[in-house]
Amino acid sequence: MRILISNDDGYLAPGIIALAEALAPVAEIVVVAPDSNRSGASNSLTLDRPLSMTRAGNGFYFVNGTPTDCVHIALTGMLDYRPDLIVSGINNGQNMGDDTLYSGTVAAATEGFLFGIPAIAFSQVNHGWEHIDAAAKVARDIVLRRFDELPSPYLVNVNIPNLPYERMGPVVATRLGRRHQAEPVIRAQDPRGRDIYWIGPPGATRDAGEGTDFHATAQGQVSVTPLQVDLTHKLQLDLLARGFA
Ligand code: MN
């Protein structure tokens, strides 16, 4: 099995190092990741300048671009083969509910999916990398378990509680929950008296009921959500079509 690994926290992040170390014994891996933290980059592509790729001492490749750039370049200009799987993460912090729209971790996986390759995004629920080795072991279990019950390509979003491996709950299938609107930006002034704004934290959970990713991880379970990319609102399409008729 040949696996392309990326993330949005950058190629030096403990999460991608742990993930690569966990997968290297069981697969042929190549790591292509941003040169710096690009969390929140979503599916953005860099179109206003060329990009470069550099090989680090540990064999990882880093790109001065977004997570989506990394996977896009790897698939269309770098690798002379088609990977069997794209794996992204392990992210420093949860990507649940509405987070998935902003997440660069999910976006790296999505880019692989859009190229027809199965893809899995991994995130640890809490920031700070506590029990990252346990999370990497869970990620390896999930990769080796495969998703043969899903049509290929699939796009799967996994959130792993920060627990020791022995205390990790079962892997469960979930739907995305929802958050309230984000907290307001932090407004301040720069040293020259100009207003500056710092994007605030995401909103609290609004739908964290049973069956959601929020609910599962709160119980210590590993949340696995199958994602799709089609944003069409099917019900409103019918309403609109009838309105136009
Ligand atoms: Mn991140």
**Pattern of helices and strands:** EHEEEHEHHEHEEEEEEHEH
Proportion of residues in extended strands? 15-25%
Main β-sheet description: 9 strands, mixed
Structural class: alpha/beta
Bound molecules: manganese (II) ion
Q: Low-confidence parts lasting 5 or more residues at pLDDT below 50?
A: none
Global shape: globular
- Helix coverage percent: 25-40%
Q: Within the largest sheet, what's the order of strands?
A: 3-4-2-1-5-6-7-13-8
Q: Count the helices. How many?
A: 7
Integer-rounded radius of gyration: 19 Å
Q: Give average pLDDT, whole number.
A: 97
Task: Write a concise synopsis of the structure shown.
Helix content is 28%, strand content 24%.
Give an account of the 3D structure.
Helices cover 28% and strands 24% of the residues. With 245 residues, it is α/β, with parallel strands linked by helices. The strands form three sheets. A nine-stranded mixed beta sheet has the order 3-4-2-1-5-6-7-13-8, with helices on both faces. A two-stranded antiparallel sheet has the order 9-12. A two-stranded antiparallel sheet has the order 10-11. Strand 1, helix 1 (14-23) and strand 2 form a beta-alpha-beta unit. Helix 1 (14-23) packs across helix 5 and helix 2 (67-78) runs parallel beside helix 4 (104-114). The radius of gyration is 19 Å and the shape is globular. The mean pLDDT is 97. Bound molecules: manganese (II) ion. Manganese (II) ion is lined by residues 8-9, 39, 91-92, 105.
